[in-house]
Design goal:
Helix content: 25-40%
Bound molecules: pyridoxal-5'-phosphate
CATH topology of the largest domain: Aspartate Aminotransferase, domain 2
Strand order of the largest sheet: 4-10-9-8-7-5-6
Number of helices: 14
CATH class of the largest domain: Alpha Beta
Oligomer: single chain
Shape: globular
Order of helices and strands: HEEEHHHEHEHHEHEHEEEHHHEEHEEEH
Number of strands: 15
Distance between the termini: 36 Å
Length: 395
């Protein structure tokens, strides 16, 4: 079968909720992908942070293979020998007390919302059915019905109603607006410490500390969605660390699955996650033996600090290089995570990612911006290759 055959097959048999670039990938290793015809591409997107350790990292693949030969699925009705170790190791890595495993990022966020509401009724004393959750505009927390209920992106939300009530939306980065929105019935504030899909938006310095203070003052939970920003992407294990701030609950996902399978979790305070009782919440696949073995390999890689350091050092390099390019209006972000705003009059839209693919670089553009988020195993020379291709396309 040819590239054309595969694309035609996808278009005939799959729902059209994506519009992929016209390459058909067949192999991946480290920061590189290879298509059907043997053409190589540098991965400048890393599966939106799901591939922080690159494609098929040998330690993660080895852990998965070893577990495949032992035990892969049990359901949570039984204990298994990977579960408690995964939970303890992930809690220790993130400096938290308890872990609620799940599969996708959206599921982790949904689980955190449910836990926050239950905590509000049981602990804060909010009247039944009245719990509110305050979120930020331009948020991206996933695609479930409840989550798109508080999205401000028309594409994500329109014609998917009726929506789940109980959410208030305030401008991101505006602590005063947040303070005005919080009431006695507020269970939680849910925020991305850096807004990923909005275009790697870093909030004003001090904002996240103010959010923490506000939550402390009002007995409100701070729920941080670190599904994309977490696990070394910004140069620290959790992006909130840059501001010296702790959340009460964190949603983690993407890189937790090591680029192999969906693994997510809510981690946080034991007195908050502890409100769940048997039968009240669950997941057939959450915390399965294979996922736990993969997650443990990820935690081991992160515990060494090497990936966080690579992201800091190479991040500074990539930001500096991108900032010097002709045709770039602004670069923002943190670590190996950059949003590049393309200057007026330069190529924009899908043309940019197609032209980059022709030059051997796979990247995502949207609304006049380019997202640069390579796997953290990338080298300086590989970054140069990618940045040179961007210079060529924009120049
Ligand atoms: N939260 C954030 C911050 C995300 O960026 C995403 C995905 O992009 C999600 C949640 C949803 O994750 P998933 O696609 O695994 O459901």
């Amino acid at each position: 079968m040819t590239t054309h055959d595969y694309i035609t097959l996808d278009e005939r048999w799959s729902a059209r909720n994506y519009h992929p670039l016209p390459v058909v990938l067949a192999h991946g290793e480290g920061a590189w992908l290879t298509d059907l015809d043997g053409r190589r591409y540098l991965d400048f997107l890393a599966g939106y942070s799901a591939l922080n350790f690159g494609h098929r990292h040998p330690d993660i693949v080895a852990a998965a293979k070893a577990q495949l030969d032992q035990l892969t699925l049990t359901g949570r009705v039984f204990h298994h020998d990977q579960f408690g170790l995964f939970c303890r190791e992930l809690a220790e890595l993130t400096g938290t007390e308890m872990v609620l495993p799940a599969n996708t990022g959206a599921e982790a966020v949904e689980s955190a919302l449910k836990v926050a509401r239950k905590w509000a009724y049981q602990v804060k004393g909010v009247p039944d059915g009245a719990a509110e959750i305050v979120v930020a505009d331009e948020n991206f927390h996933g695609r479930t019905t409840t989550i798109v209920s508080f999205s401000t992106d028309a594409e994500a939300r329109d014609e998917f109603g009726p929506f789940t009530p109980g959410f208030k939306v305030v401008p991101y980065g505006d602590a005063d607006a947040l303070r005005s929105a919080v009431t006695d019935n507020t269970a939680a504030v849910l925020l991305e410490p850096i807004q990923g899909e909005a275009g790697v938006v870093v909030p004003p310095k001090g904002y996240l500390a103010e959010v923490r203070q506000l939550c402390d003052d009002t007995n409100t939970l701070f729920v941080a969605d670190e599904v994309q920003s977490g696990l070394a992407r910004t140069g620290t294990t959790l992006a909130l660390e840059h501001e010296g701030v702790r959340a009460d609950l964190y949603a983690l996902g993407k890189a937790l699955g090591g680029g192999i399978m969906p693994v997510s979790a809510v981690v946080g305070r034991a007195d908050v996650l502890g409100v769940l009782r048997p039968g009240e919440h669950g997941s057939t696949f959450g915390g399965n033996p294979l996922a736990c073995a993969v997650g443990r390999a990820v935690v081991r890689l992160l515990a060494g600090g090497e990936f966080q350091e690579r992201s800091r050092e190479l991040g500074a390099y990539v930001h500096a290089r991108l900032g010097e390019l002709d045709g770039v209006a602004e670069v923002r972000g943190r670590g190996l995570w950059a949003n590049v705003r393309i200057a007026e009059g330069r190529p924009t839209g899908r043309k940019v990612s197609e032209a980059l693919a022709e030059r051997g670089v796979l990247c995502k553009e949207s609304h006049g911006n380019l997202r640069v988020a390579p796997p953290l195993v990338i080298t300086r020379e590989e970054i140069d290759f990618g940045v040179d291709a961007i210079a060529d396309v924009l120049g």
